[in-house]
Amino acid sequence: MEVIIQPNTDAAVELVSQLIAREVRANPRAILGLATGRTMESVYGRLVQLHRTEGLDFSRCCSFNLDEYVGLRADDKHSYRHYMNRLFFNQVNIDLRNTHLPDGAAADLETECQLYERRIQESGGIDLQLLGIGQTGHIGFNEPLSPWNSRTRVVTLVAETIRQNASLFGGADKMPRHAITMGVATILESKKCVLLATGTAKARIVAQTIEGTATTSIPATALQLHPHCTIVLDEAAAGELSRTRRRSQD
Ligand code: GLP
Q: How remote is the CA of residue 124 from the centroid of ligand 1, in Å?
């Protein structure tokens, strides 16, 4: 794992956006693995800006998002499809037909999960997977004890995740209890991955992820096995790391 600590949130967001931009410039047909959550909102904001001001071209890119809530249709404003369309897809020149999220409203969820996994494989696999981290240590919605050989599947969200995201739904009682998520193995198969974590609330889980023993109790520790994983932090999220880890960006 390469750990890069930036002085503040803006600098961390800038670096992650530039890593994605670099991938897209080097490989206009990049298959991007995308993430949602509050942390990513400014990354998409910056990518939209790079598209508008520097002509960053997504027209031949293809994307696969990590996860989607079960039971929410694409036009539900709480769905991740809605989030992605609003914050990113509708503001850049990516072809919507090349953007993929699991369909949380599919009649047959099991088949939907298998199809999603197959579509990723048929695309040639994810070149760059963007990741956030939940305070449970989840990546995507792979909650603690998710097997490392897990693939796209339906999962039950743990209480802490529901607590963390309830305000986005106007209360825990309105929040779905299940989601479809890429599995840990699906994520580990990405050619490169970039995890962004900012703020003090993430400091403890970030330290466990980077410095702790790899364990299914903290799904993000699986990234220790990834051959090309970059973790970008601001000072606040790096606050509980025991060692100073700095590396300037070339
Ligand atoms: C959700 C997503 C995760 C994301 C997490 C972090 O749970 N399913 O993929 O990493 O949010 O969210 P935030 O950035 O809001 O802390």
A: 26
pLDDT above 70 as % of the chain: 97
11-194, CATH topology level: Rossmann fold (3.40.50)
**Shortest-distance atom of ligand 1 to CA 181:** 8
Mean pLDDT along residues 145-154: 98
- In the structure, which protein residues have their CB atom closer than 6 angstroms to any atom of ligand 1? 35-39, 66-67, 132-134, 140-141, 161
Structural domain boundaries in the chain:
11-194
**β-pair type (153-156, 178-181):** antiparallel
What would the pLDDT profile of 5-28 be if each residue is shown by its tens digit? 999 999 999 999 999 999 999 999
Average pLDDT on 187-206 reads 98
Q: Of 9, 13, 16, 36, which is best to mutate to test ligand 1, by the most ligand atoms within 8 angstroms of its C-beta? A: 36
Beta strands across the sheet bearing 31-34: 2-6, 229-234, 192-197, 128-131, 31-34, 62-65, 99-100
